[in-house]
Design goal:
Length: 334
């Protein structure tokens, strides 16, 4: 089976490409390297011993996208490509709407022209908005609080509409919780660029001595230790979730949403302490004001992904912390 992976050189895409290749799928990557580099493709090839056909193409380039579909007999698309920084999306909303929506429309229209009927989409727990109690269940009402979140919600809607127009399409909307960790080889992972916004890239920069301490955003939430609680999932488990979805796509009628998380919430302090223990390092921190827009606590109900996809996470929090540092440590040693 030939799988087109858009954004395949990125953090989650690269781990998913490894998993696909190790499970006998052929992989074609479309990426413009806006937030990644060809080195990730070389690393994927090194880990798997297989070669990957790669197109340096912007998904906004209609002709470029058409060329990828025309030159390959694509059976399914896994669509990671897009912009993902929440704060930046508030500053540059049109950049986010233009890239994420129009890019996805270009891919969907190419699928229509080439009779590709299977699609796996990178959605996010952000579509549950601010008002749902945890655990989040797929059928809950959805909303968004920033342009990035709206693009995810709008793309989910576009895909539902596409499935009404094409009753023979099979679409999985995978709602990721908080992916962290890296491949055990240390060759692929999440590269912290500039000053990171997300927790684990920030911690690894502190561990590397590039930042002097972590600011913990809020110590007075109604959570066991007062700091924010999230459902962190190892990126290698997340990658497996895509294979499970792909394997079951035939049985999915229309578009169906699945939470990909562990179902367990950890606080910021839990993560700091687990990171220190797993890597025998000290992470200096300071508790500061809450970050505007943050929720106190959320985590996934994982029942549907388990019952319908057979998806169950394997990696512990310790694995997530050790592998995250293993990847970043190598970056700074080069
Ligand atoms: P990433 O930035 O590492 O990967 C995205 C990839 O898309 C990059 O390789 C980038 O170069 C590519 N890309 C960006 N714009 C493009 C364009 N116009 N044309 C072609 N390629 C383009 O991000 P990631 O963390 O791997 O996330 C992958 C997907 O999962 C994204 O859609 C993101 O919104 C979604 N997601 C991520 C998280 C997370 O915490 N990482 C959580 C929920 C959902
Ligand atoms: C953020 C996005 C979410 C996106 C997800 C991808 C926001 C509001 N939400 O989620 O839409 O899908 O990334 O992973 O940006 N924290 C600190 N100090 C830091 C960084 C984070 O204390 O320097 C805390 C946060 O307050 C939060 C937890 O760590 O409690 C996780 O934060 P982060 O990694 O940024 O992810 P989310 O905010 O959950």
């Amino acid at each position: 089976m030939n799988i087109l992976v858009t954004g395949g050189a990125g953090f989650i895409g690269s781990h998913t490409c490894v998993e696909l290749l190790q499970n006998g799928y052929e992989v074609i990557i479309l990426d413009n390297y806006y937030n990644s580099s060809p080195d990730a493709v070389k690393a994927i090839e090194k880990i798997t011993g297989k070669s990957v056909k790669t197109y340096e193409t912007d998904m906004l380039d209609k002709d470029g996208v058409e060329q990828v579909f025309a030159e390959n007999n694509i059976d399914a698309v896994i669509h990671f490509a897009g912009l993902k920084a929440v704060g930046e999306s508030v500053q540059k909303p049109m950049f986010y709407y233009h890239t994420n929506l129009e890019g996805t429309i270009n891919i969907i229209e190419a699928m229509e022209r080439h009779q590709v009927k299977k699609f796996v989409f990178s959605s996010s727990a952000t579509v549950y908005g601010m008002n749902n109690p945890s655990p989040y269940v797929e059928g809950m009402p959805l909303s968004a609080t920033n342009p990035y979140g709206w693009t995810k919600l709008m793309i989910e809607q576009m895909l539902c509409d596409a499935c009404v127009a094409h009753p023979d399409w099979h679409v999985a909307l995978l709602r990721y919780f908080n992916p962290i960790g890296a491949h055990a080889s240390g060759l692929i992972g999440e590269k912290p660029n500039g000053i990171p916004n997300n927790l684990m890239p920030y911690i690894t920069m502190v561990a590397a001595g590039k930042l002097d301490h972590l600011n913990i955003f809020g110590g007075d939430y109604d959570t066991p230790d007062g700091t924010g609680v999230r459902d962190y999932i190892h990126v290698c488990d997340l990658a497996v979730g895509h294979i499970k979805a792909l394997d079951k796509l035939d049985q999915i009628q229309g578009a169906r949403a699945f939470n990909l998380g562990t179902g367990v919430g950890y606080s910021v302090l839990d993560i700091v302490h687990a990171f220190e223990k797993a890597n025998n390092l000290k992470i200096p921190y300071e508790i500061t004001d809450r970050r505007p827009g943050d929720l106190p606590s959320y985590f996934a109900d994982t029942t549907r992904a388990y019952q319908e996809l057979g998806f169950k996470t394997q990696h512990s929090l310790e694995d997530m912390c050790r592998s995250s540092w293993n990847f970043v440590k190598h970056l700074y040693q080069q």
